[in-house]
Specification:
Elements lengths: L2 H9 L2 H15 L5 E7 L6 H11 L10 E7 L4 E6 L1 H24 L3 H19 L14 E4 L1
């Protein structure tokens, strides 16, 4: 069993991970936007820099409309970040990110990580639907999954 398989098992049950994946699919259901959730075992530089690196490694900067959003969580360090590509960020600005982060953090403080992530995905999905509605020719550009890495 690899390091990240162990990490995954310590943090979420299979059912909880499936609930997050269902929330990703729901967030993307009415939009051309792409959403991912990534868990890291540790912070290398700082949470935002690490999130930006993961964003690129996951190919989220390659979406056609530049409307990808990543929720990046480092449970061991009690830190997380939400970042979006330039198309999404141009519409929302900094206030949106802080509002979503605050909502998620309220759940995280109570130990309700899955609920916090789900709330964050719902908020992101709502904005994506408003500004990047699904078109007839839309394709799912990125995998709908939870990813794990350093």
């Amino acid at each position: 069993m690899g390091l990240f398989s162990i990490f995954r098992k310590r943090f979420f049950s299979k059912e909880e991970e499936e609930k997050i994946v269902a929330a990703i699919r729901s967030a993307e259901s009415n939009t051309s936007g792409e959403v991912r959730v990534h868990f890291s075992e540790k912070i290398v530089a700082d949470v935002l820099s690490d999130a930006a690196l993961a964003f690129t490694k996951l190919g989220m900067d390659k979406t056609e409309r530049r409307n990808g959003v990543l929720i990046y969580v480092v449970p061991k360090e009690h830190q997380f970040a939400i970042i979006g590509d330039e198309g999404f960020h141009r519409i929302t600005g900094d206030d949106f990110w802080q509002t979503v982060k605050d909502k998620m953090q309220n759940f995280f403080r109570e130990g309700n990580f899955v609920e916090g992530i789900t709330i964050g995905l719902e908020e992101v999905g709502h904005i994506l639907k408003l500004h990047f509605p699904r078109q007839d020719n839309d394709t799912n550009e990125l995998k709908d999954e939870v990813s794990y890495g350093k």
